[in-house]
Amino acid sequence: MAQITSVETYSFVPDDLRVAARRPGISAFVRTKNGADFIAPTIRSHAPYVDEIVAVYNQCTDDTEAILAGLQDELGPDKLKLFHYLPRVHPPGSAEHAAEPGASPASVVNYSNFALAQTTRDIVVKLDDDHIAFDRLLRPMVDALRRDGLAPGRMNCFSGLNLAAGEDGRVGVHAGTPFSGNGDIGFFAMTPDAYFVHDRRFEDFRKYHFRRVFAGFAYWHMKYLKTGLGFANYEIETGTNRRFARKERDFHRERDVISVSSLRAAMPVLRARIMRAIPFDKWALIGNRALAIAAGEVTDADVADFLKQYDIAEPIGAV
What we know:
The protein is an alpha/beta fold. It has helices at residues 39-46, 64-75, 95-99, 108-117, 135-148, 242-253, 260-266, 269-277, 281-294, 300-309; strands at 4-7, 23-32, 52-57, 80-85, 121-127, 131-133, 154-165, 171-174, 179-180, 186-189, 196-198, 203-205, 211-221, 257-258. Strands 1, 2, 3, 4, 5, 6, 7, 8, 9, 10, 13 and 14 form a 12-stranded mixed beta sheet that branches. A two-stranded antiparallel ribbon has the order 11-12. The radius of gyration is 19 Å and the shape is globular. The termini are far apart. The model has no long low-confidence stretch (mean pLDDT 95).
């Protein structure tokens, strides 16, 4: 029987991070609401690379809870720790989120900090419930991390490719927004400053306390292959989430799906080299990411192999 801790109320304080008591190793945490589409492959694919996964779910009306319980039976309660966060959480981008104090149980900031505070290892990484591990590139990244460690103050950022389906059902990279992870996702050594704070738009991880470097591509982002194209949880229909209503409109205006080789051909290499040389870590990160694509770090064969492994769809260009 699954071991699930229900959380009726909670208000984060930085001491909850228990930095001094953390053990060596890598923790991952994931927050999910109606994540049944991809939560299982997300957790299974990352389990070999981390020492524990903390999964916190909220307001689920699909099979997420049952899937998580089954995964815990499979992986064990020490590997996968489950929490049911009961307070209603306002979605990022909404007017309600903008008005809610970050320490409120109803804030996604507080919800996120609760998930982070349940981790116990000295290196931490955030997963979303639609991130499936890119094994070929994630494996050496984690091997190096375990071998060399990660100094406090450094964040090894990584990105993913946004996969989407074209009109014929074949899957490739979304042309309008090909990348996920712009310096907000990565491995970081836990410090007392590493937590989320309130931004009127969303929960903002205090990433500017770290020197961020681009470590490579580490996952396939399945957002645009989810039910509702990844916009279902933002309560757009209420009319109070203008931020994600705009993002949804932008997505529908530009539904083109392209191959990795087409993406590589479109990479502005000169601009990327210039960005990499500018002493601002986000610009350097984006420049290095573009250069990695231009150098062929990810290929169409990678996409085809991934889609075949998970029996998702045919890739763009398949005959």
